[in-house]
Amino acid sequence: MFAALKADFLAELAKRDTLYVADLFGGSQPEHRVNVRVINELAWHNLFIRTLLVRPTAAELDGFVPEYTIIDLPSFVADPARHGCRSETVIAVNFSEKLILIGGTKYAGEMKKSVFGILNYLLPEKGVMPMHCSANIGPDGKTAVFFGLSGTGKTTLSADASRTLIGDDEHGWSDTAVFNFEGGCYAKMIRLSPEAEPEIFATTKRFGTVLENVVIDRETRELDFDDNSLAENSRGSYPIDFIPNASEDNLGPVPANLIFLTADAYGVLPPIARLTPDQAMYHFLSGYTARVAGTEIGVTEPEATFSTCFGAPFMPRHPSVYGNLLKERIAKGGVKCWLVNTGWSGGKATMPGISRMPIKATRALLNAALDGSLNGAEFKKDPNFGFEVPVAVPGVDSKLLDPRGAWADGAEYDKTAQDLVRKFIDNFAQFADHVDESVRQAAPTAA
Known about the structure:
The protein contains 14 helices and 23 strands. It is an alpha+beta fold. Helix 8 (277-286) runs antiparallel to helix 9 (319-333).
């Protein structure tokens, strides 16, 4: 059926008077990158992918030979019976032919995700850990990696004026470096604040930034980032050098800290917790966050979602391949691991008067973890999840550090926490036979 799909794509290409072609790299570390040729019918899609992938120099383009080709035709209507797909939208990846066919969707992100999937397949064979994460470098020269699903703060927290940005979404961890797969950033724009996210907000004023689903006043041409009438998932893509403190070569040292981000809408998890290597592998394979009302059609209550390795749709190998690679690299580098909840405190997100974690508090806790000062704090063991939670941190309200104490009804917290624990346990059952006993023992405790 792929042969039929390919033939129909090529026939559609032949009908076009104008096409846009870009030759680009997936990956910033030369020995681990792939050459990609992208063919688009829409000019803005071509601008998008030129922004999001790594742009070769003129010298690198001389004699450029693509290893993989992406053909992106939003107007193409797939036939499920003929093409073996589930709908009129199709994203087909053929590793044998090194060809990716995208049709029936104007969502430009499918192109970058396809390259992410290619690298996720190829790099583990070379001992390189592919990661759905952001990464930055502190003033001390140490790299921090932020894993997280959409909406957990991966882009926001990595764009810190005091740190050097490596990238906001997709990276590899080799023996010598953390390297960005991309040459640009893809940030959420909904409710973007110039006070909380000044570096990202500034990109919306720059020529060349591509905005998707952002409402613009037809008369004044002013942007309204609070208007979600087109979609909750509004986006902006821009070259990484639009961020003033971005790394010039998209590279940094191997990590000193790993941060797993979650937006817990149940109000159960603490704003920060310290993990053992086994707990880190457990939470990496779990890939937990929660969806809340307004983010997806039909979601009216908090809903737990688990995306293996924080990027399940783009991880073509068995999850244990990535989990074991991560655990080995944590052990080899003595990497500190943290779980950071950017979600809600004091109750479920749908309860009256319950608000999301203050970003200032999240940044203060992160800074304490990354500069090492948090290691000297007093910690206590969380009774449900077993990880260590700081009792007090300068500049942060101690009530925020105690999730149960933040609830008006402690018994209701206990019930909600145990419900979430069982969701974790049920989800992890699929990995139990593929991990060491020590990782199985890192599971949360059901009452």
